[in-house]
């Protein structure tokens, strides 16, 4: 007895549970009392991508010939969101450092940049203050095979110069 089946296409997002793979009979019919055994599978490793859904060990027994049409499993890249904040102001002191602690929902490493390297530089996750002024620190995460690129997050830091002034008469001495 000849039966034709087609696997249903499925779409999930990376990190989701594997979907239940299903199929429909497109021609032929199963005799009363006969049932499908086994299951479909897909030829991938769970990473984001497009995979064929294959027959695997799905069977109706030796009395049937199955004409199988594969389906497609699409595993989309997962969202990737950065959480990042720093204090908005600090007072300049020579050699001052600030730990940058942005986190990406993907767990992937963050890359930082500074708008003015005359005021501060970045070494890994450490902001090194060199002078006073206002800078923008940008946290980036470009994603990978399984995660989308995250939207950059910016934080503005104002580095104030502490000036001691002494009033002498009507004049200020710095």
Structural commentary:
- The protein starts with a strand and ends with a strand.
- The protein has 174 residues and is mostly beta strands.
- The model has no long low-confidence stretch (mean pLDDT 93).
- The chain has a 4-stranded mixed sheet with strand order 2-7-5-4, with no helix packed on it. A 4-stranded mixed sheet has the order 9-16-15-12, with no helix packed on it.
- The protein contains no helices and 18 strands.
- A hairpin with a 2-residue loop joins strand 17 and strand 18 (171-173).
- The chain is rod-shaped, with a radius of gyration of 30 Å.
- The protein has strands at 2-7, 10-13, 23-27, 41-42, 49-54, 65-69, 71-76, 82-83, 89-91, 97-99, 103-104, 111-114, 120-123, 126-129, 133-140, 153-160, 166-168, 171-173.
Provide tags for this entry.
4-stranded mixed β-sheet; 174 residues; single chain; 0% helix; mainly beta
For the largest beta-sheet, the strand count, sense and barrel status come to: 4 strands, mixed
Radius of gyration: 30 Å
The parts where pLDDT drops under 50 for at least 5 residues are none
Q: Assign a percent range to the helix content.
A: under 10%
Mean pLDDT: 93
- Total number of beta strands: 18
Strand content: 35-45%
What structural category do the secondary elements indicate? mainly beta
Give the overall shape. rod-shaped
**Separation of termini?**
100 Å
Placed side by side, the strands forming the largest sheet appear as 2-7-5-4
Number of helices: 0
Order of helices and strands: EEEEEEEEEEEEEEEEEE
């Amino acid at each position: 007895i000849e039966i034709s089946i087609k696997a249903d296409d499925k779409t999930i997002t990376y990190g989701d549970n594997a979907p239940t793979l299903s199929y429909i009979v497109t021609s032929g019919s199963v005799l009363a009392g006969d049932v499908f055994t086994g299951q479909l599978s897909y030829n991938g490793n769970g990473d984001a991508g497009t995979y064929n859904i294959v027959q695997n060990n799905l069977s109706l027994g030796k009395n049937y010939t199955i004409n199988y049409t594969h389906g497609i499993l699409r595993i989309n890249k997962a969202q990737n969101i950065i959480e990042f904040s720093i204090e908005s102001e600090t007072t300049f002191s020579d050699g001052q450092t600030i730990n940058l602690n942005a986190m990406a929902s993907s767990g992937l490493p963050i890359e930082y940049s500074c708008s003015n390297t005359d005021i501060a530089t970045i070494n890994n996750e450490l902001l090194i203050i060199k002078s006073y002024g206002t800078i923008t620190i940008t946290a980036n995460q470009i994603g990978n095979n399984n995660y989308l690129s995250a939207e950059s997050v910016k934080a503005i830091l104002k580095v104030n110069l502490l000036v001691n002034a002494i009033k002498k008469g009507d004049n200020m001495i710095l």
